[in-house]
Amino acid sequence: MRRLLSYTQQALAAPPRNPRMAVVIGRLLAIAFLLCFGTGLYSHFLQEPEPWMRFSTVPAQLYQVTQGIHITAGIACFPLILGKLYTIYPQLFQTPPVKSPLHLLERASIALFVGASLVQITIGLLNTYQWYPWKFGFREVHWALSFVVIGSLAIHIAVKLPMIARFWSRNSEGSRELRGETAVDETPDAAAPVAESAPVGGVTGRIFRWIDGAPEPEPAVSRRGFMTAVGVSTATVVALTAGQSFAALSPFNIFAPRVKGTGPNALPVNRTAKAAQVLDTAVSPDWALTISNGRRTVTLTRAELLALPQTTVELPISCVEGWSQMATWKGVRLRELLNKVGADTSQGLKLTSLEKKGGYRVTQMGPEYAFDSSTLVALEVNGDTLDIDHGYPARMIAPGRPGVLQTKWLSKLEVEA
Ligand SMILES: Nc1nc2c(c(=O)[nH]1)N[C@H]1C(S)=C(S)[C@@H](COP(=O)(O)O)O[C@H]1N2
Ligand SMILES: [Mo]
């Protein structure tokens, strides 16, 4: 068994499979994971704030940027993780499989980390395509897994710290040894532990000399070639999808699910009026917006809303799924409506949509958004009446909020006590 494992491990040896490469890719992955985690926390708390939380309404594009980073960094994880697994997977066959309880913990944390990360980025990617081929709630699972991923990443980094230090830079001791710049062979005892703890062929030169006297074969994958492959694939998937979030890359948006400028009012639609089952109620002549604060209530028809002072703002729709687009909105300032029912600037708001059912039929808005001068009950977009798919007769649009909270087909606004 042992011999089979060690034979497999050696057979898989290749120049990119060395600890320096694992550290180089590992660093990039760690950056991508931390970006995803940080921006993910922000996105989560915007949608499920703790009562004491207040958020910034400036710049209006803040969420567009954080969520664009979230999705783009998540997509970059695919080639990076595959590259990393390529460099380290011969480690699967290390002998003996378990050396000590600590070693077992190390291997278990890596298994957990790899498994959780792969599930995490895969369900995240499918979510951006609005494809939910599973029964569980995406948000809950993505949220819970993020702690598993970050927790096991922390353990992984802690355990590997000595190795990370040895191979941190080009001129670290380990990296120089790899290039054969230190006299490894003259100090076999000192070098031995490295070979043991490092991925296969921890020290180049030994990799191909495992059969005594055999000439060194030409490696099928060179280190440089491998780095280039990982680099180019990462840059390519990022460049071909980031256009959904970042306007400058929009012309190269080939794989991402949303394309800027398409759809009614030249704006993509996320949930159609048909899907929300509002095709009849949204165009009903009986529609009116109710605004209430305790017992004080005001009801305004669309014509009455249009007769109030109109404000124009440039604000983006920034979907949690990563696509975003700037649009020109026209309508009534929310705070003017709130003033009509005597709300004060410490009070938040409950918004109800005409939508029959759905996770975003009822949403909450903190006072920092409700009283911001650019938050509108929008009646027009991009110079035209709101299309029914964009929330006709009226929708909410506020700066810096995730798309899910830009409620379409408004019905009721209730000031919270
Ligand atoms: N009532 C209601 N409003 C909603 C949604 C919804 O499902 N129901 N979806 C939201 C989501 S996820 C986004 S990204 C934006 C998209 O706005 P658009 O379809 O007008 O581009 O609307 C938001 N408003
Ligand atoms: Mo969205």
UniProtKB/TrEMBL annotation:
Keywords, ordered alphabetically: Cell membrane, Membrane, Transmembrane, Transmembrane helix
Residue span, Oxidoreductase molybdopterin-binding domain: 285-416
Membrane topology classification: Multi-pass membrane protein
Main location: membrane
GO MF, any single term: electron transfer activity
Short name of one Pfam family: Ni_hydr_CYTB
Subcellular location: Cell membrane
SUPFAM superfamilies per record: Oxidoreductase molybdopterin-binding domain, Transmembrane di-heme cytochromes
Listed transmembrane segments: 21-45, 65-89, 110-129, 141-159
UniProt keyword annotation of Transmembrane helix present: yes
Cytochrome b561 bacterial/Ni-hydrogenase domain residues: 28-158
Database matches in InterPro entries: Cyt_b561_bac/Ni-Hgenase, Di-haem_cyt_TM, Mopterin_OxRdtase_euk, OxRdtase_Mopterin-bd_dom, OxRdtase_Mopterin-bd_sf
UniProt keyword ATP-binding present: no
Any GO BP: respiratory electron transport chain
A Gene Ontology cellular-component term: plasma membrane
Protein name: DMSO/TMAO reductase YedYZ, molybdopterin-dependent catalytic subunit
Organism encoding this protein: Agreia pratensis
